[in-house]
């Protein structure tokens, strides 16, 4: 009996669980280690904050997927691993040995330069903690006149969170102010100028004040590089990603930023029995952004390669598309589309995003699977 250990219930592992449910391996024990029985979907987080979705609509039941795949679930987070000894370690000192390992644990938020904001600091990851904390922030803002919320991070997550927060506060008739700090590299780096222009206008229309400067955390909130102090009651950090520190002593080959170095098959360059997908890995054959899009699209290839390794078959390569589509929610049911040099905006973009996001959840839920089965039955 061989053991395949899946760590993290991230986007790519959803495909792996579904592939395992179809394959029903008899000679392989599969274990999923996940801190929660649910996977909260980041794509719908801004819509949930803005009041468009309930929590139940934004989460995927990992337990149901694991049950359907005959996978044993361990509710915990791994605290370390030794790739030479083929084991992962849990915080209480227990070890789980593996023959084959797949890691899809995402990335962390680098808040090192915001830490002086102390209790006011609210990093968007771990997502579970953010989902717990946001209703408390909203309640505090409603209870206090002149509440000030600062969102730090000018990427897709930062702008969506700032606009979602602003919308939620307005719905509650709060007079809170929302500021967005986008660092000196500006708003939405990597997106086309048309997208940046549209988002700048969306922020201005909403009354979210944009600061294109670096910020550091201070006791009162944040201080900008020109020494302006933004007083804050809450500082949401949607700043750059960083790799988990437990990877450092793992003996896996890491890139210069501490992410797992993988090839086009998403296999570790140092340990052929370790695979990784999503934010945690760094492709060494090409440059690939850390995004949900790639984590989702790499999923079926990861699933195929784990099964191929168990059967000693050739591996497949994940070939990312040159351009990815981003649909950026603007708080109200309105969104901006970004695809290479192309941009568009409107309520129809929001409806498009809504359809894609609800479809993603449905595909990974029991009802979605039942529908898939029905469709394939009809097709045959
Ligand atoms: C607000 C927001 C909006 C975003 N919008 C977009 C978007 O529109 N488009 C886009 O492409 N990207 C978007 N992103 C980025 C996207 O969320 C990430 O790139 C994506 O989630 C990465 O997927 P993943 O599978 O690597 O990890 P995740 O989805 O983060 O999943 C990792 C899982 O591993 C678990 N885990 C973590 N540590 C451990 C451990 N030690 N042991 C066991 N399990 C562990 C976590 O609990 C989690 O369930 C957004 C991010 C945010 C925060």
UniProtKB/TrEMBL annotation:
UniProt keywords, alphabetically: FAD, Flavoprotein, Oxidoreductase
Gene3D superfamilies per the UniProt record, alphabetical: 3.50.50.100
Q: Does the keyword Flavoprotein apply?
A: yes
- The keyword Oxidoreductase belongs to this UniProt entry's keyword annotation: yes
Species this protein is from: Herminiimonas fonticola
Q: Output the superkingdom of the source species.
A: Bacteria
- How is this protein named in the record? Pyridine nucleotide-disulfide oxidoreductase family protein
According to the record, the signal peptide region is none
Question: Which taxonomic lineage is given here?
Answer: Bacteria, Pseudomonadati, Pseudomonadota, Betaproteobacteria, Burkholderiales
Q: Which cofactor does it need?
A: FAD
GO molecular function terms attached to this record: NAD(P)H dehydrogenase (quinone) activity
Q: Name one GO biological process term.
A: aerobic electron transport chain
Q: FAD/NAD(P)-binding domain: which residues?
A: 3-286
